[in-house]
Structures are given as C-alpha cells and as structure tokens.
Amino acid sequence: MFREFFQLWKKAGLLSEALKETEKMLLVAKSMFSFSLRVLMDKEKEKEDIYKIDRELNKLQRNVRRKILEHLSINPQQDVTSCLVLITIVIDIERIGDYSKNLIELSHKYPQRLKGKYIERIREIEKDIGGLFDGTIDAFKNADIDLAKQIMERHARIAVHCEKIVEDLVEDTQVSSRMGIIYALLARYLKRVSAHLKNIASGVANPFHRLGYKPKNME
User: Fold this and answer.
1) For position 49, which CATH number holds?
2) 18 CB-contact burial (10 Å; exposed 0-12 / middle 13-18 / buried 19+)
3) Each residue of 72-117: pLDDT tens digit?
4) Ramachandran angles phi, psi of 63, nearest 5°
5) What confidence category does residue 219 fall into, taking pLDDT thresholds of 50, 70 and 90?
6) What span, in angstroms and rounded, lies between the C-alpha atoms of 156 and 36?
7) Domain total in the chain
8) b vs e for 185-218, b when ≥16 Cβ sit within 10 Å of the residue's Cβ?
9) Nearest to 113 by CA among 48, 173, 39
10) Where are the alpha helices (DSSP H) in 48-144?
11) What range does the domain containing 208 cover?
C-alpha cells in the first residue's frame, strides 16, 4: 500500500514536501551516526555540534508532522493510514539521532582509544549498519518492498551479533569493568540504531498494523 501512495505523494504538494524532508532526515541521521562513531572509535575531533545537528533533525520532524496534518485537514478522507506510517517513520529517524548523541556522550566518558579483543567485532557491526543505512535510504526513496524486507532480515543478524558481544562480556573475567560497560553500551546502542532502521524498512514493506514486525511471509 505504501508503494501505491508513494507514487501519488510525489506529485502532491504537501506530501511531496513531507517525503523530501523525511529523506533529508535519513541523510542527516546517517551523517550523525557516522560522525559519532568516528569520534568514539577513531577519536576524531568534534568539529561539529551533535546537539545542534539533532535540533535540525527535530525541526525536520516537526515540519513533516505539520505538513501531514495540513494535508489531512484539507483532505480528511485521503491516505490516512499511509500518513500514519510516515509519521511513525520520522519518529524512528529522530530516535537514531538520540542514539548518535549517546555515542558522543560515551566518547566523553571514555576519551581514550578503544582497544581489546572486542574492537574488530564492533567494527564489523559498524560496517554492517553503514550498509543498512544505505539500503534503508534506497528502500524508502524507491518504495522498494523487496529491499525493505532484506533490510529487516539483515537487522536480525546484526542484533544477534550485538547480543553475543554482551553475553561474552558478562562471562569475560579478563576485561576490566570500565571497558566492559563501554563495550556493552556500545553494542546496545548499535543494536538499537539497527532496530530503528529495521522499523523504517517495515514502514515500506508492511501494512500499518505490522510496523516493526516481520512481514507475514518471513515468519
């Protein structure tokens, strides 16, 4: 259903603008996430203000909500369900911005370079989520249901890897408590970002009542 409305929305004034701003939100969120990980993992200098960027993301979210509300006030019988889907998507994007701030804050709590046997596993997850971002953006821009389903499947694998890191940390008597906390939080934040990307993809692939869940043919 989203795909059908997506084609119509591209031609509709307010909804076309809402789609463009949602796509911009995705790009801003991707940039925030990448930047925050470079600060945490590579100790890159904070040349940008993550909180200022987050305010821009929040402003875009409010703009999307306002335009959807204005559209529905003029056309109360049109596209209500799909408008709810879009509102849900922008909430997930905004949450990615929040987790990006959490990553920056984590870097402030541990200013040293991260090291140890978990670093390569974290790097692999970081790389996987970068690909997940690109796929999610493409799936949204093109209302690509098949790609959206692939994104959801890929998140499931990422989530398993993140949980395995936490489980291993709990059992690891060699890692310091401080490093254990840092890596556990990092794994949890990465999992949540991946989950929000999965939720965005589900908005493309699923009807409204199944947002955030696997499509029935994947169960």
Assistant:
1) 1.20.58.220
2) buried
3) 887 766 677 778 888 999 999 999 999 999 999 999 999 998 988 8
4) -65, -45
5) very low
6) 23
7) 1
8) bbbbbbbbbbbbbbbbbbbbbbeeeebbebeeee
9) 39
10) 50-74, 80-109, 119-142
11) 2-218
